[in-house]
Design goal:
By secondary structure, the chain is α/β, with parallel strands linked by helices. It is built from eleven helices and twelve strands. Helix 1 packs parallel to helix 10 and helix 4 runs parallel beside helix 6.
């Protein structure tokens, strides 16, 4: 059994990914680090603590970064997707006052990053991990923050650039938009979530609210960006991985774009999935206990 350090900015799909992580390894004592991204860090920290108090009070918690590496915010918060509080006002009934806040990194060797890479770079500088799965980037398709950049990379291109140029001693898997856009749940599927326990009831209400409030001219169904990264960490053979370095452009209008760069530290990048619909169904089954 591995204990993971999970960097997250909860976030609707983050919360589903965290439940999935719990369902895949119920006995792990993971560390959850909250960071800026889908909202300000004080908001994502509250959402993270609610998740822990409601689902997994045995997990550890730590506050992460509140600003990018260069201390400059370059994009508006993605309220259009997550709402101003990251969850469209849907919160579980949870007492967060008893959440213990760590001030030092534990000795976890495995990391899952579902957020901007500011804290990934900090952890790497501190030599605190050996393996990482990152949800981020867009290589063969347009970005979702700009036409060039995916949101997690766009919110801190400098930290991402530095990490990918210095990660030669780390085993890195990257799960970009190229594959996450192929794994999704429809409103019909979400409506069938069984309300057999508090977690299911909470996530169902959260997802139905997203379907109600989100502008579906941008995205018809609910893409499982962060859950897919967690899933492929356990089931890597479900993807086709490209072996290459990753370069993050940090200058000009293409700032935040990720490209394959053979001269950089070698990573594994998921550019294809063997059966996207089967993966979406498998995540649904695991998360909701079917």
């Amino acid at each position: 059994m591995k204990n993971f350090t999970v960097i997250s900015d909860p976030g609707i799909d983050d919360l589903i990914a965290l439940v999935l992580l719990y369902k895949l390894e119920t006995k792990a004592n993971n560390l959850l680090i909250s960071t800026f991204g889908n909202a300000q860090e004080n908001i994502t920290a509250k959402n993270a603590k609610e998740f822990l108090a409601f689902v997994l009070p045995n997990w550890q918690f730590m506050h992460g970064s509140s600003k990018p590496f260069n201390n400059k915010f370059e994009h508006a918060w993605p309220d259009y997707f997550h709402g101003p509080d990251g969850t469209w006002g849907i919160h579980p009934e949870a007492d967060i006052t008893k959440i213990n806040v760590l001030t030092r990194y534990p000795k976890n060797k495995d990391v899952i990053s579902l957020a901007p890479l500011t804290d990934v770079y900090k952890l790497h500088q501190a030599n605190r991990f050996k393996n990482i799965t990152i949800m981020g980037g867009a290589f063969t398709i347009k970005g979702n923050e700009t036409q060039y950049a995916e949101t997690n990379i766009a919110f801190d291109p400098d930290a991402a650039h530095n990490f990918f140029n210095q990660c030669s001693n780390i085993k890195v898997r990257v799960v970009p938009l190229d594959v996450t856009r192929k794994v999704f749940w429809t409103l019909k599927q979400v409506s069938k979530i069984p309300e057999t326990n508090g977690i299911n009831q909470w996530l169902k209400e959260l997802l139905l609210t997203w379907f109600d409030k989100y502008d579906h001219d941008k995205e018809k169904d609910f893409n499982l960006h962060d859950p897919l990264a967690v899933y492929l960490n356990w089931f890597p053979n479900e993807a086709v991985w490209e072996t290459s370095g990753v370069e993050v452009i940090i200058k000009g209008e293409k700032r935040g774009q990720t490209i394959l760069q053979k001269n950089n530290s070698v990573c594994k990048i998921a550019l294809k999935l063997k059966n996207p619909l089967a993966i979406a169904d498998a995540i649904f089954t695991k998360v909701f206990g079917l």
